[in-house]
Here is the input.
Amino acid sequence: MHVRNSELLNIKIRQYLLPAIMMKLALQLGSVVDTILVGNLLGKGAMSAIGLCAPVLAAIQIPGYFLGNGGAVTASILLGRRKKREARKLFTTTFLITAICAVLFVLAGIFLSGPLAHLLAMGGSLEEDVAAYISVLLIGSPGFAFGLLLSYYVAVDSHPQLAGAYFVVSNVINLILDFIFLKFTPMGVRGAALSTMLGFFAGLVVLIPYFRSKKRMLGFILPGRQMAEAESGEALVEETAADSKAEDARQMRVALKTGLPSLMFLVVNLVKALLLNGIILSLLGEDGMAVYTVCTNAEFVLVMLIGGFMGVIPNIAGTLYGEKDFYGLHVLCRKILRYGAILTVVLMAAVLLFTRQFTMLFGVTDPVLQENMMLVLRIFVFSMPFNYWNYFGSMYYGSVEKPTIATIITTLENGVILVPGALLGIWATQAAGGTGYFGFGLAFVASEGLTALVAFLYRKIRYRGQPLLLIPDENPGNCLDFTIPAKDDDVAKVPHEILDFCGQHAEGREMSNRIAVCAEEMAHNIVQYGGKKSQWIDICLTVIPALESETGEEAFILRLRDNGIHFDPTSYERDGDGFDIHGIELVKKLAKNVTYVRAMDLNNTTITV
Here is the structure.
């Protein structure tokens, strides 16, 4: 009578989509506009100097980006598996590591800015501007590091709007201060760096409501011996220090492995920036750095548009994967791929039609330099379809515990192919009597295209015979998976669905009735008390054979997911005279175990019978 639909998931995708787009839009647009302001107000030299600082910018992102992405995805999977305590301890550990890294960056900004600038500028005329810029970046890096880390955790912990608002507020403040410092003060590039760091510090205020939210699943938890809530929700148990440390270490290894693609992205970008900057300065000069900076900003525009859609993946996919909701994963990926393809085509057409206008945004008026920029941009644009596909692969496979593929993608496309490709392309076209810019543009296309090809071949060989997403087409095992509207008439039909399914598996009448009662009571409470937002209820009943069960007995796992108000049935206690929800105490008596998490801003209740 009922089948699973994607209505509830579609609501969540739309809810997470706008904050994810805002997050990427603000972050990338802030960088693009920042470069535009520097190019127009301070000139080509200052813009090239900021381009040379890319390795330092990549370095200060490592703690927040690496630990935030890996930790948040792992925490999302843990929440999907109802392991709230492990998720909280992981959050605490990654926060402490980020704090240590931030202190080291500040010390580097105080004592190492000069030597770093000499290395990056190769002793050239841009060294003074580079030193001024990176000293402020390093000293102000704590705001950037903590902002990145927390934004990832906040987004996966049912607060995507706050994560998006953080980046919007940070970059709005950045751009306002940018204009003031560059236009009305003599600070120069130091003002550009200062406005960025002050913006990210100020944005942290936006995240304060998260730490006061009742829907929050994550928080700080002390290591060592502690009273930890039992997963069954029945009692408090004291775990030994040895068990605690072993579990902490295991989850941290998982987080580091999951975040490896992000780490490789930043490390390879850092190395790429060092090597590529040297190649460009040696073969193309400061004009070449200006061309490369504009191309980088064109890529930022692509990431700004596509990245918003792709940013939904780690916020939702980890939880779905943890719950083994493979139907939901397919729905998510189809939508993201479709939206991304449309935007990529639109952006390619825009860059090809308005290439000259795009270069003029950065204050480029020299005819020769402008023509070279236009040539590289018109070649660069054909790397965008491959870039879009690689972006999806790195985000998706990293969210479903396939970090090797994601690492291959991020490593190859961000330097392993691009650096030698750029060197060969520039040298070959200059040897043929050209300027070198044609070969430089081709290097971008080769880098993205070959990356997509290598990742495809690796997946085909390593996971022979498996589908593209490396997950089953449907939820595995003996599973009844259906959706009902949050209405009493539809709830009344649920027991019949349950009894028919149990009958097909030759289950006894007593067991079938217990499961049916649990499903009906919980679904009725969702309708009764879920509030106006409660529209759909996903119900999934899975049979776990005795051989696969942790207890050695056949078990039925009943999962209910709804978008009503935040409500944890495991912490509910009947108060008799006051507010009372009938049926929950009955369900707790009938069930072996009841667990709850608020994940994807949805109530997720699992009942084991």
Summary: The radius of gyration is 27 Å. The beta strands are 226-229, 236-239, 478-485, 536-544, 555-562, 593-599, 602-608. The first helix runs from residue 7 to 41. Confidence is low (pLDDT under 50) at residues 224-239.
